[in-house]
Write a structure and sequence with these properties.
single chain; 295 residues; alpha+beta; 13-stranded antiparallel sheet; 13 strands
């Protein structure tokens, strides 16, 4: 990370007199001794300059991180999207449960609408999940179960629960505006052999998230998030990776998404196929009425 302008000159001037052998204690003898008052004033001035300089570095890192996240979002902007998903849920004993779904999305992060409808296995066929994301608050989520022909709204206290037996929670199914996070660019690291930016993200609405913070690895070549670590109470809880990247209609698109729950020892993989962007969607598609319609 480059230092801000003036940092080298500030350091060279201030450090020339500062006692490196014992920080905080003035020298006992000098050819031109400083009075205690002058020394304290000089020390305070140096400390102030140091704090201001470090603050500028951190502010610059935050601004740069936000720029990177905005660019990543810009490259993914579409009016709508659809795909089919083959899901594998692997428990800590290696047992695999397979599911299938159809996925539709309209809008962009912060104000998007998402509908997921399960197609397999038979016991969950027709189950629908509707998410209405809000730019200024928590998302509204509804689950429809065809067996009882009834939908119910997901309560706030259910946001941390597993979504349909996968390693994603209801909160993970939301799409939040990138402007609602505080970012910090921590540096550059390699992920899966690709040079990446490492960014720390903290959601500002602390009462509506289970995560204390998230680390993101954004690939430099395609400017897209490829890996994430989710922390709960400061401890690493889950990891999420995006792999098998292919261009679809000029947009770099991951065709394999993998969530690992490190506490449970389970893994969920979603294999995407038939990905389409900017498709035509009926005005009432993302509604409770349509949610109730079994395929």
């Amino acid at each position: 990370m480059n230092s801000p302008p003036g940092w080298s000159s500030v350091c060279s001037r201030a450090c020339s007199w500062y006692p490196s052998w014992l920080p905080g204690i003035p020298p006992r003898s000098q050819s031109r001794p400083l009075s205690w008052r002058r020394w304290l004033m000089s020390s305070a001035s140096f400390s102030t300059l140091l704090i201001l300089s470090l603050g500028l570095v951190r502010a610059g890192a935050a601004d740069r991180a936000l720029e990177i996240m905005r660019e990543a979002e810009r490259r993914q902007l579409t009016e709508s999207q659809s795909n089919a998903g083959a899901i594998e849920v692997i428990d800590n004993k290696g047992k695999t449960l397979n599911k299938g779904w159809l996925f539709w999305r309209e809008g962009n992060r912060g104000n998007s609408k998402i509908l997921v409808r399960f197609t397999a296995p038979p016991e969950v066929r027709g189950v629908g999940f509707l998410t209405l994301n809000r730019p200024d608050g928590p998302a509204e989520q509804w689950l429809y179960t065809p067996a009882i022909q009834r939908e119910r709204r997901i309560a706030p206290q259910e946001k941390t629960q597993r979504f349909m037996g996968t390693d994603f929670t209801h909160e993970d199914m939301e799409e939040r505006s990138i402007e609602n996070y505080d970012y910090d660019l921590l540096g550059e690291e390699s992920y899966a052999g690709q040079a990446s930016y490492k960014i720390k993200a903290v959601y500002r609405d602390r009462e509506n998230t289970q995560y204390s913070h998230v680390y993101l690895w954004v690939r430099k070549d395609i400017v897209a998030t490829a890996f994430a670590e989710f922390y709960v109470g400061g401890k690493l809880r889950k990891t999420l990776s995006w792999d098998d990247w292919k261009q679809v209609q000029g947009i770099w698109t991951p065709h394999l998404v993998e969530m690992k729950d490190l506490l449970r020892g389970s893994t969920t993989r979603i294999h995407a196929s038939d990905v389409r962007y900017n498709i035509k969607i009926e005005p009432d598609f993302f509604s409770l009425r349509n949610l109730r319609r079994a395929p």
